[in-house]
């Protein structure tokens, strides 16, 4: 504030008798020639003497038209400064420890926040001189800010607040409430500031702190809220406090148990450490990232964008790895015991095995995973194959450092599963994850190469394998045909494919985890790929006995109260239907849905009705195949369901 009153010297360091218990008022304006002019003003507490001799000095700056631009209060009184040290201690709007003279912009958020505290402090004073100086300050506050304070308090009692008074509403140190997808979250206010955005206009930024854990240490993190005038306020009209994205705890609806509930939730939050695989069911949010080719110079300053979705299934909780990819940082390190658990966020950060995105997961929706240690009993495979797969996946050693490529080279386990759809390839990988109690990350080659670019494919593949190694997860890569067939050089498409294969082989060489590759067909096996496969298992369409076992296993999973079935007899009867494992499961699922729609228990008639619809579809498909073959063989494209039926017929 020195530029507004350059002639005011520093306050004396002598005894309090050097400072008069009076107010000096100055007006700073400009003469016609533009030079500054300082005028002593008659009025509140005015006397003629050096300004250093006065407890309070009021400086009002005027523009050329003598309109008030700003008001500053200089505090010289050691009694008032001592009161500030005792009552206020510190305030983000005043960069001072109150040991020497301080300049305060008026109206002052600090004085608003501690109005009642200063009044109580003054009433308890025994020293007459100190009491007089504090009374003088309170008189000035009432004279200059009293009307504004009364209006503010009246609005707050009505549940309203003006945009210009948000800095008063959010007092540093106060507890505030926000809701994240209906989950309450308590935070502490650190400071507020008014800023302007070129597109969205003026806004008030509220910086808050909360208890946090970044995967390695406990501490206090910061969170910023921005309340925009145009969006939340109608011009200068007040807005409802409870309609704001964050509001003081004292303004919240009466909920006496809120702190205790959030403290219990916070203890759960702080107990989630390390890498954990959990079951999740409920709303969540995934982190939306810009395309890889996107660039903006201010991109790092943009807030993270979280998009809502519903998650059902296994998730991996790992704050440390998230921070390595998206560092946010902790303001200050604290001991676990010193943290207020009521201030912990309602969510933890983890990875969605289904979406393959970083996500926010609400801690109250996390559950322990009910691992199926006997999952291999569901596989209809020769016992020798089951024993081999079980031995390999349970005995595999993962590296300690996922980023040390030399440590990982040649130490992975690559399993190739080939056979027709619905024969149990995917189920094998799922069972391997169950018996080892590890996450299963499933991806298709088309997902990894959705931009048809070797560079993008390598980026996605590297990220997937690095995360899988870090979490000791099992990887399932579907549609691996493109990497398994022998390479050719007879076309541009073949050249692109060869580039993808080269990338895949190189990263597979340095992957030390467990990966399952699935394919429906292999015509010519690539030699380089063959040398990297540790185990190759062939799968076939189930025979009659295999179908009976699949029907029996699938029907036994139904709740007894949901069905009226003689499972042994029905399984024997239904095994005559030439279906694969996936088709059997889908049939039972559809029949169960049909039964629920009719508010009935599952009967054989429901299954037969679904099978009848399926037979009609097969008949129509056969007619379409004959019609297509009769007109042009080119209509039947490779990989279509018509062509698959044609292949079956020919075989």
From TrEMBL:
Statement: the UniProt record of this protein carries the keyword Hydrolase: yes
GO MF terms, alphabetically ordered: ATP binding; ATP hydrolysis activity
SMART domains linked: AAA (SM00382)
Q: Where is the secretion signal located?
A: none
> InterPro entries given for it?
AAA+_ATPase, AAA_lid_fung, ATPase_AAA_core, DUF7025, P-loop_NTPase
In this protein, which residues make up the domain named AAA+ ATPase? 411-543
Q: Which protein, by its recorded name, is this?
A: P-loop containing nucleoside triphosphate hydrolase protein
Q: Which organism is it from?
A: Aureobasidium pullulans
């Amino acid at each position: 504030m020195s530029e507004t009153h350059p002639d005011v010297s520093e306050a004396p360091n002598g005894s309090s008798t050097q400072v008069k218990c009076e107010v000096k008022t100055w007006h700073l304006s400009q003469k016609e020639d533009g030079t500054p002019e300082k005028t002593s003003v008659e009025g509140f507490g005015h006397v003629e003497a050096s300004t250093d001799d006065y407890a309070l000095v009021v400086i009002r700056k005027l523009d050329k038209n003598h309109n008030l631009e700003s008001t500053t209060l200089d505090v010289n009184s050691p009694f008032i400064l001592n009161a500030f040290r005792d009552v206020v201690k510190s305030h983000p709007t005043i960069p001072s420890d109150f040991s020497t003279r301080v300049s305060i912009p008026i109206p002052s958020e600090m004085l608003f926040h501690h109005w009642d505290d200063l009044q109580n402090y003054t009433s308890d004073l025994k020293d007459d001189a100190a009491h007089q100086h504090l009374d003088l300050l309170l008189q000035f506050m009432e004279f200059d800010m009293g009307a504004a304070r009364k209006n503010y308090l009246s609005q707050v009692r009505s549940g309203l607040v003006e945009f210009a008074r948000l800095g008063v509403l959010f007092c540093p140190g106060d507890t505030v409430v926000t809701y994240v997808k209906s989950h309450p979250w308590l935070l502490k206010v650190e400071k507020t500031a008014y800023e302007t955005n070129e597109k969205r206009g003026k806004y008030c930024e509220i910086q808050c702190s909360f208890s946090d854990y970044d995967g390695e240490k406990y501490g206090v993190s910061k969170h910023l809220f921005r309340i925009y005038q145009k969006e939340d306020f109608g011009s200068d009209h007040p807005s409802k406090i409870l309609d704001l994205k964050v509001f003081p705890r004292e303004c919240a609806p009466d909920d006496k148990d809120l702190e205790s509930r959030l403290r219990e939730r916070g203890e759960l939050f702080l107990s989630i450490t390390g890498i954990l695989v959990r079951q999740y069911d409920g709303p969540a949010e995934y982190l939306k990232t810009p395309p890889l080719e996107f660039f903006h110079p201010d991109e790092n300053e943009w807030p993270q964008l979280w998009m809502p979705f519903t998650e059902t299934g296994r998730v991996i909780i790992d704050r440390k790895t998230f921070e390595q990819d998206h560092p946010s940082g902790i303001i200050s390190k604290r001991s676990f015991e010193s943290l207020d658990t009521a201030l912990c966020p309602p969510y933890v950060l983890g990875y969605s095995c289904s979406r393959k995105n970083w996500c926010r997961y609400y801690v109250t929706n996390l559950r322990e995973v009910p691992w199926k240690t006997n999952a291999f009993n569901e596989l209809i495979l020769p016992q020798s194959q089951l024993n081999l797969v079980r031995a390999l996946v349970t005995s595999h050693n993962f590296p300690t450092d996922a980023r040390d490529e030399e440590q990982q080279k040649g130490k992975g386990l690559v399993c190739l599963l080939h056979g027709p759809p619905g024969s149990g390839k995917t189920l094998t990988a799922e069972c391997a994850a169950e018996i080892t109690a590890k996450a299963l990350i499933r991806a298709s080659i088309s997902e990894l190469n959705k931009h048809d670019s070797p560079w993008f494919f390598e980026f996605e593949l590297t990220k997937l394998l690095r995360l899988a190694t870090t979490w000791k997860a099992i990887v399932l890569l579907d549609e691996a045909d493109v990497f398994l067939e022998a390479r050719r050089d007879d076309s541009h498409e073949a050249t692109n494919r060869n580039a993808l294969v080269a990338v895949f082989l190189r990263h597979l060489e340095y992957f030390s985890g467990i990966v399952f590759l699935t394919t429906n067909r292999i015509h010519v096996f690539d030699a380089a790929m063959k040398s990297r496969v540790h185990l190759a298992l062939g799968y076939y369409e189930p025979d009659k006995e295999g179908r009976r076992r699949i029907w029996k296993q699938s029907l036994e999973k139904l709740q007894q109260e949901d069905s009226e079935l003689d499972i042994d007899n029905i399984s024997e009867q239904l095994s005559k239907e030439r279906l694969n494992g996936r088709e059997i499961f889908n049939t039972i699922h559809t029949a169960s849905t049909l039964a629920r729609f009719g508010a009935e228990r599952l009967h054989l008639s429901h299954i037969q009705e679904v099978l009848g619809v399926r037979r009609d579809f097969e008949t129509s498909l056969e007619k379409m195949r004959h019609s297509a073959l009769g007109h042009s063989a080119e209509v039947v494209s490779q990989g279509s369901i018509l062509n698959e039926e044609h292949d079956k017929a020919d075989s």
